[in-house]
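Fill in residues.
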């Protein structure tokens, strides 16, 4: 539940740290805003507070055109709610209700549709369909404001079944058509094939971008990824097409800049949502810091590098292969091996991009039969890679982020050659499990009490105080190492 007095103080102070944590509905205008809105502050008696944009929309308020609620960082709907609701929100955010219904979503979450609606009403203040509608609407509004894409492409990218539905939704919520909302009078013309598209990714402040970029640079797979001049780049397989993403800090504080090459309109939301996940832009950094700072070592690390993030994965299979390669060897050695595998077995790009990006990462079907000869792998490790590839190809292992983490750990470690460290690492980065803990990691054991090495049992005991944010503690400790462990 929102505490009115705290929200009122934050609203009057326009404290950016509360941006995305609640939304303000103004009864006299029928508009809802972010707490950082530059408009004149309304009187207290005319204000109503909502935990999410969807809840404000359900109450009949329309989004403010000045502070743009669609650009607010992740809301409390992503934290402090039931596990089922968090999983449901993540699936909706990835488009689960664009081509399916609530019954299918509820079945995937293991509850009845009635119970799912009840959970959403309690924790989010809006139904799953209202959340999905708000997501589509806000995403489309961002594309209208930040791009010159044709309206038909935007409607398709946002998941609207027709342009008519798209136009009707905007007239109902904003009181005007999408064309009327487009800023600067940009022409509605078709972009050139493979023309880049740049969008902004808002994040919760602070954000330790330098550490995030350094972590990616140390693990960039040759031919697939690169980091240079403050920019991260990588290739992507998007159905039958090949694309490229570039991510760097935006000139506007509080945003990352994401540039997409070769991405079709229908794939925009998928790629943008994936990029948000990979760079963990919606992490509740204040709540994480409040818990971890109670540990003296972690508190010092947070003071030096506030805004820690847990990097996600562009592809679960690719990251799992990388994790297997990293077993009991250095980060640099594992990165070298991953690059050799990518170049030998990956699909070459039809049009190589700048920065030496030339390939897509090989698929499970390809690596099932790979010999891995003359790459530098021992026979047992090569066999493990083939077993992982076969398990993923056959559907025995999948990387659905809403699955039970314990069951996933059990299935992955059942593969010969996979231990707890690998399963925990994959849970940390692929499933984005915030409490993942690869306690046997040598880097963590060293970082906890340098230059000594503590025991795994001592790490487990100390880490109890870090819950439920142990994955973020892991990243702080890895980032404190000279070579950035993990």
């Amino acid at each position: 539940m929102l505490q009115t007095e705290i929200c009122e103080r934050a609203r009057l102070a326009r404290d950016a740290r509360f941006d995305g944590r609640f939304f303000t509905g103004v009864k006299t205008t029928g508009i809802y805003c972010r707490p950082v809105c530059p408009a004149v502050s309304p009187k207290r008696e005319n204000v109503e507070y909502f935990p999410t944009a969807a809840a404000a929309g359900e109450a009949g308020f329309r989004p403010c055109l000045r502070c743009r609620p669609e650009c607010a960082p992740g809301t409390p709907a992503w934290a402090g709610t039931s596990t089922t609701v968090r999983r449901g929100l993540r699936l909706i955010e990835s488009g689960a209700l664009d081509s399916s219904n609530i019954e299918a979503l509820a079945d995937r979450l293991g509850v009845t549709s009635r119970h799912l609606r009840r959970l959403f009403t309690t924790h989010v203040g809006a139904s799953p369909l209202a959340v999905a509608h708000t997501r589509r609407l806000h995403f489309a509004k961002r594309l209208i404001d930040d791009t010159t894409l044709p309206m038909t492409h935007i409607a398709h990218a946002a998941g609207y079944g027709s342009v008519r539905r798209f136009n009707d939704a905007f007239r109902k919520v904003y009181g005007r058509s999408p064309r009327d909302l487009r800023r600067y009078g940009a022409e509605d013309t078709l972009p050139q094939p493979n023309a880049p598209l740049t969008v902004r990714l808002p994040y919760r402040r602070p954000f330790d971008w330098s550490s995030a970029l350094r972590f990616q640079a140390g693990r960039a797979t040759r031919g697939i990824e690169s980091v240079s001049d403050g920019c991260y780049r990588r290739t992507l397989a998007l159905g039958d097409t090949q694309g490229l993403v570039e991510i760097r800090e935006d000139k506007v504080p509080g945003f990352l800049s994401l540039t997409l090459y070769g991405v079709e309109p229908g794939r925009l939301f998928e790629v943008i949502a994936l990029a948000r996940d990979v760079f963990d832009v919606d992490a509740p950094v204040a709540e994480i810091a409040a818990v971890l700072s109670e540990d003296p070592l972690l508190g010092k690390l947070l003071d030096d590098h506030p805004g820690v993030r847990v990097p996600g994965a562009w592809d679960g299979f690719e990251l799992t292969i990388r994790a297997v390669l990293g077993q009991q060897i250095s980060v640099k050695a594992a990165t070298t091996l991953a690059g050799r595998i990518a170049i030998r077995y990956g699909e070459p790009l039809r049009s190589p991009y700048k920065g030496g990006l030339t390939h897509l990462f090989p698929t499970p079907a390809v690596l099932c039969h790979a010999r891995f000869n003359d790459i530098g792998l021992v026979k047992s490790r090569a066999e493990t890679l083939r077993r992982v590839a076969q398990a993923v190809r056959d559907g025995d292992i999948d990387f659905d982020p809403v699955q039970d983490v314990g069951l996933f750990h059990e299935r992955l470690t059942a593969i010969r050659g996979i231990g707890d460290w690998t399963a925990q690492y994959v849970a940390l980065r692929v499933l984005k499990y915030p409490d993942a803990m690869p306690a046997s990691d040598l880097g963590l054991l060293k970082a906890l009490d340098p230059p000594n090495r503590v025991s795994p049992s001592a790490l487990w005991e100390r880490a109890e105080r870090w819950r439920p944010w142990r994955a973020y503690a892991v990243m702080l400790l890895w980032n404190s190492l000279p070579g950035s462990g993990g």
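The CA atoms of residues 442 and 453 lie 8 Å apart.
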